Amino acid sequence: MKRYSNQSLRRFTEELSSKSPVPSGGSMSAACAALGISLGLMVGKMTLAKQKGRQKSQLSSKLLALDKLRLKALDIVDCDPVVFEELMCAYGSRKSRKAKSAKQLDCLLNQCCDVQIKLISVSQGARAIISSFKSLVRGSLVDDLKISDIVLSAAIRAALITANLNVIVIKDSTLRKKLTVQLNRLV
Does pTM surpass 0.90? Predict the structure, then answer.
């Protein structure tokens, strides 16, 4: 598996802007989430030094949880192209003798959708933690919190668009309905 998350930002954007189908919107959304979370982490770490006692301990725990979410977002940067390539190969094989069944395609579409659902959950969890920093933050760090929230909101919206692109082509109406309900609950 290619590790896009280990590339420099310059290299990642070069690959994103190429004519290759991967990485694409799902990876880009996850990269945005990782960046938004990272900015929130910076604010939290700068605030941590000014805290004492129980408040410092609670903030420290939140920072650990937030860093785990950052790593999950980076995993999605790498995971999304894998499942998307599998789907594209399946669509390509429909033209050959090894045609995939509608059920197999639905399974792959479901996997693509699940990756975006995970990204939405990660981003929402990060937003919740970062918003808890508001009462502790002063000065220009307030603006950084706002920027972090905007970037995470964009990641959520982009992941929702990507997930819905997959849902609408699923043939199994029960699966399509289940995913639609799941997505509607998330946002």
Answer: yes
